[in-house]
C-alpha cells in the first residue's frame, strides 16, 4: 500500500535512487569499482552486495567496535573489504570460500586495497571450516555475515551462534530472495534454504532479530539482522 498517493516505484526508480544514495552518502564506493571489475574479468558472477549494503556492513562493524568478523562466502572480496574497513586496529576478518580461484582473486583485491593484514581467507566447504574453527577453539566473533550457498543457511546459523560471543551481530544476506521465501513448497532449494534459515533465526533461543526488505539494482531482496543473546 502506498502512502500519501505516491505511486509504487519501478525498477528504473529503484536503480536511480540507489545511484543517488550511493553518490550522496557512500562516495568511497567509487574506489571499490576495481574490485568488482577484477572479479568480472575473471568471469565470476556479479552477486556481490550493493555499495549501500557494503557500507552498512562497514558501519555495523564500526558501531559495535568489532575486532573479529567472520564472513561466509568471499567471492571477489568486495564485502570482505567493506567489513575489514570497519575493523578496530588489529582486527581481522576471517572469510570462508569454497572456490580456490575466488579466494585468489579476492586476496589480490584485498591486498590492492591495503587490507592484507586485516583479512584471512580460508578455502574449502564452509561447513567444514566452521567445524574446524569450533574445534580449534578460535576466539569468538563479534560479527558474522552469512552470504554463501543458500541451501546451508540453517546450518550456518547454528554454527555462527556457536562461534559468536554474547552480544555479537549476525547478518544474513538475500533474506527475501525476490519474494521466493513465501512459498514453503518451492522447488528452488535456495529459496527453501533462506526460508528455513529465517525460521531457524525466529525460533532460536539465543537470537533476537528482524529483517528489512531492500530494492535496488539487484532487485527485490533483504538483510536479516540478529543479536546473539
Ligand atoms: N559476500 C560476497 C558475495 C558472496 S557470493 C560479496 O558480497 O562480495 C557467494 C560465494 O559463496 C561464492 O563465491 C561461492 O563460491 C561461495 N560458496 C558457495 N558454496 C560455498 C560453500 N559450501 N562454502 C564456502 N563458500 C561457498
Ligand atoms: C544472488 C545474489 C546474492 O547476493 C547471492 O549471495 C547469491 C546469488 C543472485 O542474485 O543470484
Ligand atoms: Mg548475497
From TrEMBL:
This is O-methyltransferase family 3. GO terms for biological process: methylation. The lineage of its organism: Bacteria, Bacillati, Actinomycetota, Actinomycetes, Mycobacteriales. Pfam families: Methyltransf_3. One of its GO terms (molecular function) is O-methyltransferase activity. It comes from the Bacteria. CDD domains: AdoMet_MTases (cd02440). InterPro entries: Cation-dep_OMT, SAM-dependent_MTases_sf, SAM_O-MeTrfase. Keywords: Methyltransferase, S-adenosyl-L-methionine, Transferase.
